[in-house]
Amino acid sequence: MSQSSSDKRGIECDSYKKIAKLTSDLLWEWDLKTHTMKKSVGSSEVFSSFRKKDIPQVDWWENRIHPDDRKRIVKDIRRAIQSKHKMKWHGVYRFLLDDNSEVWVSDTACIIRNSQGKAQKLIGAMRDITQRIKTEEMLRSRLSRQLSISELSRKALSENDIYQLFQLSVDQLREVLQIDAAKVLELMPDNKCMMLRAGFGWNKKTITHNTIIEKDSHSQAAYALKSKKPVIVDDLRTEKRVTGPNMLTQHKIISGMSVILCRNEGTYGVLSVHTKTKRIFTREDIDYLQSIANIISLAIQRNETEGELRKAQSQFKALHDANIIGVMYERMNGSIVNANDAFLNMLGYTRKEFEKRTIRWEDITPAEYERADLRAFEEVSQTGIAYPYEKEYFKKDGGRVSAIVGAVMLNRETEEVLAFALDITARKELERKKDEFMSIASHELRTPLTSIKGYTQILERIIQQMGDQRLHTYLKKTNTYVERLNSLIVELLDVSKIQAGKLVMNYEAVDFDAFIEESIESIRHFSSRHSIVYHGRINEVLRIDRNRLEQVLTNLITNAIKYSPNGNKVEVQVKKEGNSVVVSITDEGIGISKKDQKNLFNRFYRVESSSNSFSGLGIGLYISREIINRHGGKIWATSKKGEGSTFSFSLPLQEAFLQPHIS
Ligand code: ADP
Predict the structure, then answer these.
(1) Of 255, 258, 248, 245, whose CA–CA distance to 277 is shortest?
(2) What's the distance, CA 645 to chain centroid?
């Protein structure tokens, strides 16, 4: 190509053209004398439309710089030209294409100067870096979101004021998402209103913190609450699912997103962000908003839990300080860490004495209660609760105080247990007096009854000689009542013996099948209405107290008859289960509720709803339990109110010829 044509067609015709082909850059040359520009476009798609175009004046280039970058770039390049030493210039800016779309370019030029240092021309290369800038922007945005999430998570842990945290969250959202408004709304208990708890971008005269906002069922927030899913609204003006409620339209809101906030149980409210210009929120935007909502939800839940804990603590403190019952904190190793005045008073210690030396559980527990205490410790470490039980404590002066004690595990790691003790000495004393009275009364009643029995025997003989049938019938009836009175007195005496630990057992080897059969036979006369059906032979010899065990069977079968006024069958079932024999007595009677089943075997316990219709003292099952326990067995009841009951007891098989269990 000749020099003259090179001058005419500019940079495209000389060696730049060859170089340009090797790159995707737009090469340019700016003659500073004539202020004309020449260019050469290589393989670049972006700049391809300039390939055919001339760039006569520098203005053309300047006008193509995005208005927001123009001033900066023009100023910068002029300064480089004017400086005598600068040989190179570089700028990054947005460049406008023919269709007015913009690309990011990295423009680098070398400045050619004459011997006096005056710039003659610039030769430059412009490269499309839009993709790189977008990737950088995306990475920056991701990073800023991640930083914002971790910053907020950190604050959520330390910030105790939940509303302050809400405000911090919406401020973060403003910074990261560049939004015009945001709000945290709390759903009120009536489910009809929402309260603004934090936000920005709202008219401060009408909407401030704690403003109640009617829940418009067609609003963005209500839609999120209903669907329980994140909601993105691209354009409120055309949106079908929601209509802009007053608050949004008044503030000229167009786009937005909402996500729900959760509390411990149910929904707390909604977190929303809004823009006043149309914005298509991306998947990443909603994910980020959801992450912020998750942090807020966790903080709400923590705040609620702590609130409940604080409430429970203050309620407990009130109980502790009221000193109505003794409260103590102990470790599983037995040291009592702290106690309230009521507990110290109960044991007769002053606070000074308590603080001077550690009071240990062993020091204040009589040996016979150690087993019960160890069982309670085990219960508390396994289930967290030791249900109330009775025990005694040693007082400082060596005396004893009776208490009902219960405990809960406070902290598994430190093994701290909270125990309470209620002084029941007065009640115990009353019980002791009652037992004493009962014992004396039953003994006193027994003596005259023995005489009555003796006299009725004499009378029986006389009446037999007289041959008077009427008198004989009366005497028989008298004998029946005397027998009943006798067995009542015997039972009362048994209770006294159990209380005093003096119930004597006489064990012997007994053929169990024959024993059951005989016992049933002797009760058959008790009711003509009820048939007693016996199943199951076990063919075993057991070591039992025959009379006492017969007492148990009699009590269970007579109860089955007594409490089945409309039933007519009582079933006695005997079977082997593992190493035990289980005897069950099933009736078709009135049944027993779950609540009552727990207490049936307690002394003097009678089911209240039926106690008026059936006579009794409520001691038969108590005595039965003691007898079965003494045999090393267990007794229990299963029943449903109105649908009959089954009372069962088990006796250990392999212990039949061993030393019986002594409780
Ligand atoms: P008593 O029958 O003398 O009241 P027990 O100690 O034998 O005393 O029984 C205690 C209570 O248990 C009874 O008062 C009764 O309420 C209830 N009970 C016992 N056996 C039965 C049964 N088979 N069906 C329904 N309730 C029963």
Answers:
(1) 255
(2) 37
Give the pair of three-digit tokens for residue 233: 């609204």
Residue 460's H or E segment, with its range, is helix 425-466
Backbone angles phi, psi at 127, to 5 degrees: -125, 135
Q: Is 591 left (phi over 0), alpha (psi -120 to 50) or beta?
A: left
CA angle 187-193-198, nearest 5°?
A: 55
Residue type, 647: F
Instruction: Choose the residue to mutate in 498, 606, 648 for probing ligand 1, maximizing ligand atoms within 8 Å of C-beta.
Output: 606
For residue range 262-282, list pLDDT tens digits in order: 999 889 999 999 999 999 999
Pocket-testing residue among 498, 562, 586, 600, ligand 1, by greatest number of atoms within 8 A of Cβ: 600
pLDDT for the residue 540: 92
Q: Is 623 in the pocket of ligand 1 (CB under 6 A)?
A: no
Task: Give 452-465 pLDDT, tens digit per residue.
Answer: 999 999 999 999 99
What is the β-pairing status of strands 580-586 and 569-577?
antiparallel
Span between the terminal Cα atoms of the chain, in Å: 123
The Å distance, Cα 371 to ligand 1 centre, comes to: 30
Contact, 220 vs 272, CB < 8 A?
yes
Distance 606 CA to ligand 1 centre (A): 6
Give the residue whose CA is nearest to atom 2 of ligand 1: 616
Q: For residue 634, give every residue at least 6 positions away whose Cβ sits within 8 Å of its Cβ, in sequence order, or none.
A: 628, 649, 650
Positions of the chain with pLDDT under 50: 1-10, 12, 655-663
606 lines ligand 1 (CB under 6 A): yes
Sequence-ordered list of residues with C-beta below 8 angstroms from that of 459, at least 6 positions apart, any chain: 475
Q: Is the CB of 564 under 6 A from ligand 1?
A: no
Residue 630's pLDDT is 95
What does pTM read for this prediction?
Answer: 0.51
